[in-house]
Write a structure and sequence with these properties.
459 residues, binds zinc ion, five-stranded mixed sheet, 19 strands, alpha+beta, BirA Bifunctional Protein, domain 2
Length: 459
Amino acid sequence: MPEQFKALQGFKDILPNEQPYWRMVERVAVEVANLYGYRRIETPILEETTLFARTTGEGTDIVEKEMYSFDDRADKEGNRPNLTLRPEGTAGVVRAYLEHGMFQLAQPVKLYYLNEPMFRHERPQAGRVREHHQFGCEALGDGDPAIDAEMIALLYDFYAHLGLKHIRVFINSIGDGNCRPQYIEILKDYYRPLLAESCRDCQVRFYKNPLRLLDCKEPQDQPKIAAAPKILDYLCEPCREHFDAVQRFLRVYDVPYELDPLIVRGLDYYTRTVFEFTSDIDKLALNGGGRYDGLAEILGGAHTPGIGFGAGIERIILEMKRQKITSPADELPLAFVVYFGKSPEYKEAAVRTVAALRHNSIKTEMAYGDRMRMPKRMTGAESSRINSSALVRLRMLLDPLCGNSFPWEIIQDCTPCFIRQHYLNVIVPVYLGNSLFSTLRRKGNVIRCTVLNRSISLE
Ligand SMILES: [Zn+2]
Ligand SMILES: [Zn+2]
């Protein structure tokens, strides 16, 4: 027998039982993004490697060796471009903004992406996945601090609308090209005498990316970090004013925020506002974001202020489950058609019943493959939940041939409520309390029912 396939390590199927969570996150994200005036964009999963190489790199979470890169087949000229599966969302969105001349539109251009897969070639240890999905927003073309506050408020609303509690918002300013270099010198002066007793990573960071010294998680370096000079004390006047304005607007939005001078971003194109959301329960970051006024220039565009965040959806769903937030379950069928007997005529009658109900937008299922019973999941707790409401009063004729007689028997004792068309051996259990079939009128050969306030015809 051929070997059975398995999904690649670090890649996961999102099974039907998980989907209600995803749909809930999706619905809330679309709602909130729309509320704040963000429009959806989708960019390709594959881009030239250099796009990501320029925007990520040593000192960020994504280093080049973690990217999913490969050489494409040779083109006509024999060149083999190196391509990369998108590791994050911002680079592609900024590339699209520049490529499509969105700088000519009214600024800022506010965009969001949703359920977009991102890839990192991480070692798939302890829950690390190689493919994950993100909801992200980017606002490009204006550096107004009101946009920074708006984006943080949007994200706060998003988590709140999902029903998440214990969300904490941390913000910081990391200055700009005007004031940050001086701060970095001050930070290095502080660290230089401490370097010998710092962890090995910090010794590298000192030379390669000093801001990331503040990111170290090693216990031995925590006292050094706590006592280090804070960038907020070294902001230039325009950066200070910007940060004050962001905080003022956040208070207007009623977003409870805290200052955390240790949130940093390691790359030069990041400027001013950076933020992080955590859940107080496990102290793990939900997502980060920040202003990147220098990014468009790195990608060959004109100077374009921008700010954005990317939030991992798997991480959010994990938090929802941890906080016992229930997602709305799949909508159950309102009717389930079962037929009895081997005669093809019975089966046809069942299919006709199903078709009539579906054509009238009533979610209907049937027993396939000559199964006489309803599937197990329909008879368990799910159906009893639905049927705890009053039993259906049914007046239903599916076949005008029946004349004025009523061929459906209502079996009231059963849960769910069944109606049975005797002579066709078809049973339609109806799952919806007392409002499925509420009225019925007969006009000639056409039976009209009012179903869920919609008038339908059953012929
Ligand atoms: Zn360290
Ligand atoms: Zn500054």
